[in-house]
Amino acid sequence: MADQDSITPGNGSGDQNDAPQAATLAQYIKDLSVESPSSPQVFQWQEQPQLDVSFNLNVEKIADEVHEVVMKVEVSARSESGVHFVVDLSYGGLFGLRNIPEEALPPFLLVEAPRLLFPFARQILADATQQAGFPPLLLDPIDFGAAYMAQLETAQAASAANGGGSSNGDGETPPPEPEGNA
Length: 182
Description:
The chain has three helices and four strands; from the N terminus they run αββββαα. By secondary structure, the protein is of the alpha+beta class. Strand 3 and strand 4 form a beta hairpin.
């Protein structure tokens, strides 16, 4: 009976070389710029600035099983008096992906990876604005899944408008390539 248990694979045993694996290998500030061009006058202005926030994702294959995801966040605060501050942050992460099916790469690289990076980028932006003399900027969470789906729908609509474009054979347009921007 004991011999039988030693050869029967149990929970968590067996050949793990074929199992899908994803790991965050590193996270880093790729570029950070903080400007307050109207200092010191800006600290005497009474009006609330209008915030403009934009983000962009860039994915690049670094090696066979390693992808870099860079989240670029640009924030500016302006009022009628002028520019309060401008912060540009490019925050990157290296992700090791092994045995991940090709069709699962775009959702992971354009949804899950940015979701993992965002809290750290948000903290850097909060610290940067606070160090510039302003209240910490706390960005609302970004729904990367909705952004990905909107990008996918736009790609499908463009494909349909161009006479069908490329298809994977079953009438569905393939998802956008992860090397693109979100």
